[in-house]
Amino acid sequence: MTTLVGVEGEERNDFTKTESRQIRQRSLRLLGSLLHPLRMRLVLTAIVVVVSTAAQVAGPAIIAFGIDNGLPALIANNWYPVALAGLAYLITGVIGAGLIAWYTVLSARISQAILIDLRKRVFLHTQKLSLEFHESYTSGRIISRQTSDLDSIRELLDSGINQLVQGFLYMLFIAIALFTLDWVSGVVLICSLLPLYLLTRWFQSRSQRLFRISRVASAKLIVHFVETMTGIRAVKAFRKEKRNEDEFGELVEDYRDVNARVIQLFGIFDPGLVMIGNVTVGVVLLVGGFRVAEGQLAIGALLAALLYTRRFFDPMEEMAMFYNSYQSAAAALEKISGVLEEEPTVPDPVQPVDLWESRGHVFFDDVQFAYKKDRVILPDFTLDIPAGQTIALVGSTGAGKSTLAKLISRFYDPSSGSVRLDDVDLRDLHPKDLRRAIVMVTQEAYLFSGSVADNIALGKPDATREEIMRAAEAVGADEFIRGLPNGYDTDVNKRGGRVSAGQRQLISFARAFLANPSVLILDEATSSLDIPSERLVQQALQTLLADRTAVIIAHRLSTVAIADRVLVMEHGRIVEDGSPEDLIGGTGRFAQLHAAWRDSLV
Ligand SMILES: Nc1ncnc2c1ncn2[C@@H]1O[C@H](COP(=O)(O)OP(=O)(O)OP(=O)(O)O)[C@@H](O)[C@H]1O
């Protein structure tokens, strides 16, 4: 028997029966866990909706009583029954309206609570998941889980379920009232259910297909838009605007076509409903009229029967739509439950090693590593990096340099063997200790929205302004930061606050300096900087590397020169290991690389 775990098979739509059942059960479990804390409120809401619908349905019966009993009594000078009917109508009207208002508030609160709970769970959980998950599950998909999927669920909760519950109760109570009042009219109403059923079935099968096409068409529009805007530089560089315009035009056309078909469908369904409603009212009037004439039915009862029949069809359209919103919400919940079922592949230790001060001795003990089982990246890796050493890691693209860096940062765990820091397996370190001891500065030097100071303070959230400025000074970033429109308070993502690639790196160096880790991993940016910026970055690096272990994925000659030791990697193995001078003087791979670099600089 196959078992689907997490997001596996999310893009498939050919599930076996067992798989479909598993997925359904998973989303039901999620739904159950969302509803469980709200059970008391759900019970109260159910009571309120039942009473409010009953109050609404009571109206025509009270009118019938007023006409059939009140009027004859009034003619006989007894105003009491009419007054009673009027008062009852007024009270049920007021109570009904009040309860509807209460129900609206209650159900909105419940749906908000569910959505907020779900939104938080998705955010916290996806953030907790390991890098392995994020490297294969694209950010586009995560964004859809948080936006369109949650929107589908919101739509179902906000309107769908309300309409279904209210509509269903309304129709049920009307049918009961009608049968109690006049069973013959009740039978006429029941007869109308057959054409109603056929029309609704026809509408649902068509609309389900069209809504699915419409969702795909609108998703394509969004994907096209997002791709164009995120790749706007490439679009401009390759003059792709015209092609994009044509493609976008076609997608808009497809979207328009399918929406036109949806409108046509409603153009048949809505009048169809009205016609069935009118014909049923006509038949109730005809049959009832004859029976009134023959004295078998009171005129007030006929009037109430007509009102009931008329109102019976009111919630029909919304109820027919329910199925669509239910389907997209169910699909959304299935996908979300898949994401929530994923487990971090790099779990936190159950019993972390006690608080400890790291010296920065890194040791790869017989490590084997593969991203996917069938493709080993590091076949057999042993490496000792003494505390305080600066290592430059070089090698051709795909050699495994970033993989090594990710293992030291514990973004991944080895498939076998262990990576140790001061003789403690990284798997036994508390995440807080791990992050304090080991910091990785990535190539893109990501800056979050907020001020420059906030971005530096990421390295030490409780840092004072003084410490932030000292860190910036140490790496030589202070001068340019002071030159920004608002100095340290400049918002890096606003116009005017834009910083260059070199400046971005200096900010991320200041961030790492402030964090003061014992081990620093640095994936050097490949983009070449101009000579003054390069010099600035080199100086900053020297300050940053002093007194700590450092592993630099080096792309620049000048960086290699400041290293104590150079490691050359090929196909997941270290093929050369020595001081820069020794290797440059030799005849190996690094000497060749070095010669090529030097030539490229001339
Ligand atoms: N998330 C991943 N899933 C599967 N395979 C991966 C993943 N990341 C890297 N690889 C593979 O692992 C191998 C080593 O990649 P790695 O990124 O470590 O190389 P690198 O030496 O850092 O290269 P570069 O200098 O181009 O960054 C490559 O063959 C790559 O295809």
UniProtKB/TrEMBL annotation:
This is ABC transporter ATP-binding protein. One of its GO terms (molecular function) is ABC-type oligopeptide transporter activity. One of its GO terms (cellular component) is plasma membrane. SMART domains: AAA. Residues 43-328 form the ABC transmembrane type-1 domain. Residues 362-596 form the ABC transporter domain. Signal peptide: none annotated. Belongs to the ABC transporter superfamily. Lipid exporter (TC 3.A.1.106) family. The keyword Transmembrane applies. The chain crosses the membrane at residues 42-67, 79-105, 164-181, 187-203, 265-290. Keywords: ATP-binding, Cell membrane, Membrane, Nucleotide-binding, Transmembrane, Transmembrane helix, Transport. The keyword rRNA processing does not apply. It is a multi-pass membrane protein. The lineage of its organism: Bacteria, Bacillati, Actinomycetota, Actinomycetes, Micrococcales. It is found in: Cell membrane. It comes from Leifsonia tongyongensis. Gene3D superfamilies: ABC transporter type 1, transmembrane domain, P-loop containing nucleotide triphosphate hydrolases. It holds the Pfam family ABC_tran. InterPro entries: AAA+_ATPase (IPR003593), ABC1_TM_dom (IPR011527), ABC1_TM_sf (IPR036640), ABC_transporter-like_ATP-bd (IPR003439), ABC_transporter-like_CS (IPR017871), P-loop_NTPase (IPR027417), Type_1_exporter (IPR039421).
